[in-house]
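WARN retry 2 of 3 for item q-0093 after timeout on previous attempt; input resubmitted unchanged.
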Amino acid sequence: WTPGQRYVTRPEGKWIDDDSPWPTFTLNFREGVPLTEQSPDFSYLYVSLQDRLNWGLLGESEYRIGAGKYVHKSVLPFMDWTHFNGNLTFLSGFGLSDFMQLDYYGYSTNSAFWELHAEHHFKGFLLNKLPLIRRLRLNEFISAHHFTLQSGASHTEFGLGFEKLNIFRVQLYFVYEERKLQSPGL
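OK item q-0093 returned
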């Protein structure tokens, strides 16, 4: 739900206007229905807030803050746990909620958690000041991703890099985990 969001309806479809000054609020509820004794029996609630902010010549930022909790969990198979978007390859979809150096199931949880994802795209504000690099028309960005589990375990990543037309992207990122800085990744 985005307060104040406007849209246009025509016979060929519905188009949403993204100019709302408010963020988007999301509420997700999942229920495992116990049909047999081994069937999943749980209730999961997730709330999030997401927005994109335009800073003019300085570029634009996008963020998502969310929290989830299993309200009830009698039978909760591993596939119904919360799994964070990890990536251990050099290829990624580079979505806002993707972690670059997170084991796929290392932090899967069946308890409460909160997460934060943020990226700022400078849109050439810094690299366009360099004469030869300006011709490449690269867009620089910085990012931060974090989650904390109810058990106290957490994972934080900071990154910086550049991209070209959302097709080619290079990012140097740093991971802070278990109260120490891990080796950087590319």
